[in-house]
Amino acid sequence: QVQVVESGGGLAQAGGSLRLSCAASGRTFAYDMAWFRQAPGKEREFVADIDWSGGRTYYAESVKGRFTISRDGGKNMIYLQMNSLKPEDTAVYYCAARLGGTAYTNGYWGQGTQVTVSS
Prior knowledge:
Blueprint: E1 3-7, E2 10-13, E3 18-25, E4 31-38, E5 45-50, E6 57-59, E7 67-72, E8 77-82, E9 91-99, E10 108-109, E11 113-118
Parallel strand pairs: 2-11
Antiparallel strand pairs: 1-3, 3-8, 4-5, 4-9, 5-6, 7-8, 9-10, 9-11
């Protein structure tokens, strides 16, 4: 059983930074990890993911160059460093885990953490 818990959300001004954290418990060493977000009235969307080894990352075009995903395997932690924040980054951010070859929708999800960016 895998559990993930997000933290680090809050309020930031446009152009500012926030770092989200995701604590994973259980046997997560073989799991890819990702961040998704859902803004009010919109569908949930992919933000970034990182493979089990930390050697491969992938980003949505909307955050490429501004956000950085990383993982600390020793601590079972995933991070999302968000720089140059924009009001359109306002959303609930979710951490998700999946075994390689499966879909995140079939994996494990946290409860989410709110990020609000003011203009």
